[in-house]
Amino acid sequence: MDPQSLGNHPQLKPPIVLAGTAKEGGAGPPIGLIDIGVSEAAYLFRVALPGIRKNECGVKCEIQRDGTIHVRGVVTPDAGFLRDSLNVFQLRVQQLSPPGPFTISFKLPGPVDPRLFCPNFRGDGILEGMVMKERVPVIHVDG
């Protein structure tokens, strides 16, 4: 596939389904914005999860053979307070997604091998995943 034509490819604009608190987010940075990259052998996707703490949200990423991705987790409640290493702040404005479970579902442009998946939840709130495309066995016929 020619890299110049990738941006106009209709399959590269997948519908995104948001559920739970991902759907209820306010004016802040939304949960669930995605990027999808394509190479000869794999797909790379990035999902924005702003305000979600890697060690407290239980994010799970389910990959299906048809290329459907389900990202699930929980926005943990702050009980009206924000904390850093030294201070506790009372929450006055909350525009990030409210506490509770969320699901983000989208589809990659083609089938994949779910066993060959490499996830990385980055420190900037981006879940990045690379999954290999499904390899179709080539059968050579002599004759």
UniProtKB/TrEMBL annotation:
InterPro entries: HSP20-like_chaperone, IDM2/3-like. It comes from the Eukaryota. Signal peptide: none annotated. CDD domains: ACD_sHsps-like (cd06464). GO terms for cellular component: nucleus. This is SHSP domain-containing protein. It comes from Hevea brasiliensis (Para rubber tree).
